[in-house]
Amino acid sequence: MSMKPYLKPALHLLLIALLGLLAYSNSFHVPFFLDDDSSIINNGVIKDLSRFLGGDGYAYNPRRFLGYLTVALNYRFGGLDVTGYHVFNLAVHIGTAWLVYTLAAMTLRTPFFTEAAPEPERDATPSAMMPLFAALIFVAHPVQTQAVTYIIQRLAALATLFFVLSLVCYAKARLLQEAKGKALGWKPVSLYLLSLAAAGCAMKTKEIAFTLPFVIALYEFLFFRMSFAKKLLVLAPMALMAVIVPLGVLSSGRSMGSLLSDVSALTRVDTDVSRLDYLFTQFPVIATYLRLFFLPVNQNLEYDFPVYHSFVNLPVLLSFLLLLALFLLSLFLLGRSSKGERRLRLISFGILWFFITLSVESSIIPITDVIYEHRVYLPSVGAFIALAAAASLLFRRLPAFASIAAAAVVILALAGTTFARNQVWGSEVSLWSDAVGKAPNKARAHYNLALALDKGNRTSEALPHALEAARLAPSEPYAYNLIGSIMGKMGRIEQAAAALTEAVRLAPQVPAPHVNLGDIYAKAGQTERALEQYQIALQLNPSDAD
Fold first, then answer.
1. pLDDT at 182
2. C-alpha–C-alpha distance, residues 449 and 428, integer Å
3. Among 94, 528, 529, 539, which residue's beta carbon has the most beta carbons within 10 A?
């Protein structure tokens, strides 16, 4: 049976979009979480578009200006209705999947592949379907849910879209240049300029885009033919783009680790992790990311992941050996690709992409939270292209129908798992209950579950989790503040005052415990003591009208 009717790009793009819509069809009413509060709900800058565009938006966060611009536009047209935010996030996700498809298909047309001998007819279908398989894995895989469903993590997804767009424009420009020989027409130049513009957009969305010039250089050297000097000349403008992120970090006056942190101070349990300890910890973290690619079970917003302090810890050592073996495999496949099967180079490229793009958040830059699933969104592009290329080699001896059926089973299973994961994201209570169940010793998971239950007026259920959060993190003030608030609602005035007094002692510069303690004193008829707490809170936050 001829497979040509199934190889049309337009049909492929439609299939990618439909699968994305199916997998995320239950995500459009997922509420705001964690940093959505400070970045969207209580962010006055994004609530006035003219003010945002007038300079306040850039001043608020110049390093991620474009990401927050999309948030400001969402607010302008939909306020705090979460539907519009989720529609945008899903559109970015599907758009990126389309670009993954385009990049994989375009790579098969680079000189490295076109100069090779044509494949036998029986082998042609898996190779031709490889770009589609890569894009379908990308759009359907449940490891992407955190970057897509958690609204403010659109910064990772949007940066990835611009990142891949930049590489696609670069590849297209080089293909046109190769077709024209030495002549350099206006189309290649325009596409090259568009590639630079997309790179700038990526770097003004999230710092992970710093790795883009390195990936483009890798792509150029692996798939195009040109003298070394000319390659350097072509790559020079893109290399200069790499200074955008370091300049942004230097001008902020803050460390890279704090800028990359994924949650606000309100819900963060601070830890002092050295660069070396962070590096040791990242070996098993990266191994966990790889495990999620192949076995996406036990996903969690709040992993209880230990910080390792020695290289000879067994999880660190074994993970390092695994990653070293994977890196050496990429080099081995790179060498073999010149002599035999060309798709081995695509696998090698995908593995190297994974390591390069993960280096910003999983190397020696200490970030308070050592693991988050959305950090693997950009690295997954290379990983899934590599997986699709490997699958096309494994399926090459199968009949076309059998290979497509096997791929369909995998894709539908991934989409179903994504749908189920989005069910967990459906409410604050369900998400944090899931997190507490999988990480019962994490204070922040208990704190956020208590907060969610308290919002739903389920105070008797909330109190045990607030108490557990205080027990697990006794030096953090926020659990005590919540305990005091809950006990005040329950009429346990003395215990509420004691908890809030402890919160004030731990965080005297935070207004909320002072306000809540003032409320408790007011309920007890101690108006002078209440007024004293209100005045302190007002000094700390003079703009608080309440």
1. 59
2. 7
3. 94
